[in-house]
Amino acid sequence: MTSELPVTSDPVGAADAAERGPGLTHVRPDGTAHMVDVSAKAVTARQASAAGRVLLSTAAVAALRDGTVPKGDALAVARIAGIQAVKRTPELIPLAHPVAVHAVEVDLVVVDDGVDIRATVRTADRTGIEMEALTAVSVAALALIDMVKAVDKHARITDVRVTAKSGGRSGDWVEEP
């Protein structure tokens, strides 16, 4: 048995957006999710930053600081994984638009209880790149855990969030300290 999808002359729901007004932009009136049409939006310079933390044991922190992680340079591997992840975001997040990524910075800092991760992504495109920044932090954290799991089986990812964004119609925003 096959199910038929509704036929519409407006497959992405742009015509309905004006009727809906503010609300859930990725949901059609019938409740189904769709990718928003951004083709009419202006290309603008945009930037988003995200942060997170991997909580680690004192032994794992010591191994990172001493360079004695059994698998090798965990921080370098996590940094590269975060950068690579940015380019894969639309493959991982179903309604994320592919955007032209112009710059990615991923920084990892060893602190007393783990590793702080920060990522900043820049583009000139029609839609924001918050999901790319969040993906960079998340995948960097996962790669870090993979690298240190022989030393710490209880590593934990926490506090992943957008910390700043600029560009686009909604303007600039920075996390309160």
Number of extended strands? 5
- Class by SSE composition: alpha+beta
* Main beta sheet strand tally, sense and closure: 5 strands, antiparallel
Question: How are the strands of the biggest sheet laid out side by side?
Answer: 2-3-1-4-5
Uncertain regions: pLDDT < 50 for 5+ in a row? 1-21
Helical content (DSSP H or I, runs of 4+):
25-40%
Gap between N and C termini, in Å?
55 Å
Q: Which overall shape is indicated by the principal axes computed on the Cα atoms? A: elongated
Can you write the helix and strand succession as a string?
HEHHEEHEE
For the residues shown, what is the average pLDDT? 87
Given the structure, what is the number of helices? 4
Give the topology, please.
Elements: H1 14-20, E1 44-55, H2 58-66, H3 74-92, E2 101-111, E3 114-125, H4 130-148, E4 156-166, E5 173-174
Antiparallel strand pairs: 1-3, 1-4, 2-3, 4-5
Helix pairs in contact: 3-4
Task: Report what the structure shows.
With 177 residues, this protein is of the alpha+beta class. It contains 4 helices and 5 strands. Strands 2-3-1-4-5 form a 5-stranded antiparallel beta sheet. Helix 3 (74-92) packs across helix 4. The longest helix is centred in the middle third of the chain and has 19 residues, at 74-92. The radius of gyration is 20 Å and the shape is elongated.
Task: Report a brief summary of the structure.
With 177 residues, the chain is α+β, with helices and mostly antiparallel strands.
What key phrases describe this protein's structure?
177 residues; 5-stranded antiparallel β-sheet; single chain; alpha+beta; 31% helix
